[in-house]
Design a protein that fits this description.
Strand content: under 5%
Structural class: mainly alpha
Oligomer: single chain
Strand order of the largest sheet: 1-2
Largest sheet: 2 strands, antiparallel
Number of helices: 7
C-alpha cells in the first residue's frame, strides 16, 4: 500500500519511487493496474504452451473418468503437434483431475443423533456405583486383586 500512497502524495512515478525505494517501473506498473481496476498485488497468469490443448485434456479426463495417465495424454498431444514438456502435461492433467474431483465431491452433512437411539451413560456415576474408591483410575485399581 505504501507505493500507491506515495504516488497519491507526490503525483509522479519518480518521486514515489524515491520515497518508497522501489524501481520507477514497479511504481508505474502498480499505478496502471490500479487505474485499470485490477488488484495491483496479484499477478496475471502467464500464457502457457498447453493452453490451446486444455480443452482436449479436460475432454480425455472426463471420458476416462479421471483414470487416464499423464504420459498417455502427453503422447496424444505430441501427435497433435504439442511442443511442450511432459511436466507441463502432468500439471495440466492433475489440474483437470482435481477440477473433476471438486465437482463430484460429496457434501458434508453433520451427524445428528436420534433421541433414544444411541446409548449414553455417565462414566463417573458408573464407577461410583461400582464402589471404586481411592487408588483406582480408569485403568484399574491397585492392590485389589482380580475382582476389579
Amino acid at each position: 500500500m505504501e507505493i500507491l500512497a506515495a504516488y497519491d502524495l507526490t503525483g509522479t512515478v519518480w518521486s514515489a519511487a524515491d520515497l518508497t525505494r522501489h524501481d520507477p517501473k514497479t511504481v508505474k506498473r502498480y499505478v496502471q493496474a490500479r487505474a485499470s481496476g485490477r488488484n495491483p498485488y496479484e499477478r496475471e497468469p502467464r500464457p502457457k504452451m498447453i493452453d490451446t490443448f486444455l480443452e482436449k485434456v479436460e475432454e480425455w479426463v472426463e471420458q476416462s473418468k479421471a483414470m487416464i495417465r499423464a504420459d498417455v495424454v502427453h503422447e496424444k498431444l505430441v501427435t497433435m503437434g504439442y511442443q511442450g514438456s511432459a511436466r507441463s502435461t502432468r500439471r495440466a492433467v492433475n489440474a483437470a483431475k482435481a477440477a473433476r474431483k471438486a465437482g463430484k465431491r460429496r457434501t458434508y452433512r453433520p451427524w445428528v443423533p436420534e433421541p433414544g437411539r444411541w446409548l449414553q451413560f455417565d462414566g463417573a456415576r458408573v464407577r461410583a456405583s461400582a464402589g471404586v474408591g481411592p487408588g483406582c483410575s480408569a485403568r484399574g485399581c491397585r492392590g485389589r486383586g482380580s475382582e476389579w
